[in-house]
Structures are given as structure tokens and as C-alpha cells.
Amino acid sequence: MNQLSSGALKEISVDSKHVDKPIFQLLALKKIGANSGTNDRYRLLLSDGEHSYSAMLGTQLNSLVSDNKLQSKTIIQLDKYICNTIGETNKKVMIILEVSILSQAKEKIGNPVPLSSTNQQSASSAQAPPPAQNPVPNKPVPKFQGGNLNKPAGGSFYGSNNTPTTPGGTPAVARPIASLTPYQNRWTIKARVTNKTPIRKWNNARGEGQLFSMDLVDQSGEIRATAFKEQCIKFHDLIQVDKVK
């Protein structure tokens, strides 16, 4: 039986440390949303034997669920993952990008205690400086899906330092995915492609054409972008999974 990486979930989610290829046990798996097909999202409850914590499964790994390779009590190794802090809430979201299936256990290992967002915020508050006397209240950011296909700016998270420019030749500023709102009509992001769908045709009252979608992730969050018509033909072959353009 593979030994779990005891204490690794706290190091990753609370202490913001990187643990190389940690081994966890899958305690539960839940489908997010009502859609079926490649757009399904899955939330996993992971255990290191000491703590339990939720993580999102990258959509490119959905076949592991449909093929019944990921089940309750499965022992897995996270070969590649990211842990993002969402907004100013200090809440951490773990996204699994690559995983190895090690074995199938018959019972739950240990007695893991849940690591909640309260644990994370308490740990962060202990290290943070006192707030200002008159803080500006946070405004809620509306959730939406979508995006443009401008080339993004460089950063170490993506392994590239290429900087995009505007039509006027000045450097473009890449925005974090978590900061986007439906009220911004021009913006640039830099993100890693975690999934790309095949090209498919559409036909409705407005016309017909081709489209494909892609899932993009950066250090702040994840978003789905869809390319239509000319953009579909232009970008489908250029966009590669696990690459940053």
C-alpha cells in the first residue's frame, strides 16, 4: 500500500508551500453543474491521512471519471497541480492538472480532519499586518465565462517571458482571470491551456459557422473561452494543451 503524504494538504493550502508529487487518497467525488459531456466539472475530496481538503479536477482529466479510474478510496499521486488564492478572501483553490492512479484501497486511511477556509483565513490573519482604519469595502465580482484570444504577457508561472503589445506598439498589461468582469470589453490575459475541444459546427437563426472552446488557468483562477468562425479556423491549430501562447 502506498504511504500517504501526511501533512501535505496543510502545507499546500495553508502554508502556501509546494509539495512535489504528493500522494493522497480520494475520499469522495462530486460532479459540479447539471451539464453532461466535456464541460463537466468535478470536485474531489482528498485526504493525506491527517487532513482532508477539496480540489478541482482539470477538465482534461474527465475521462478518468468516465472510465471509473477515479473512485472513492483510490490512491493517487498529483504529478502537476496549482493552488490559487481567490481575490482577497485568502481562500485557496487547488486545481489538479496531471495525476497518476497508484492503487485502490479498501478502506479510508487514517482519520483526516477537514481543512476549511476558516483554517486558512486564521493562518493568514496571524501573519498579516493590521488593517487600515478606513478600509475600502470589497465589491463583488460577477461571475461569467468567456474571453478574447489576445496573446498574453510573460511570467514565471508559465515558463515564458514574451510580452504582448497593443496595436500602437505599447506593452499590454495581462489581467488576472479572477479580476475579469462582464463590464470589460477589451482585456488581455496570460493563461495555460488545460483543455481544448474539437471543432464543431453550429446552425441557428443568426446563421451558421464553426467553433471550439478551451479551458484556461492562471494563478488566480480558471475560465472557458470560445472561438467562433474566422477565429476558430485561425486559432484551433495554434492553441495547444499545456502550452501558453
Tag the structure with descriptive keywords.
245 residues; four-stranded antiparallel beta sheet; globular; 10 strands; mainly beta; five-stranded mixed barrel; 33% strand
Report the order of strands and helices: HEEEHEEEHEEEEH
Q: Which blocks of ≥5 consecutive residues have pLDDT under 50?
A: 117-128, 131-162
Number of strands: 10
Question: What's the N-to-C terminus distance?
Answer: 41 Å
Backbone shape? globular
User: Whole-number average pLDDT?
Assistant: 75
What value does the Rg take, in angstroms?
20 Å
How is the biggest beta sheet arranged? 5 strands, mixed, barrel
Helix content: 10-25%
The main sheet orders its strands as 1-2-3-5-4
Share in β-strands: 25-35%
Work out the oligomeric state of the chains in this entry: single chain
What class, by secondary structure content?
A: mainly beta
Number of helices: 4
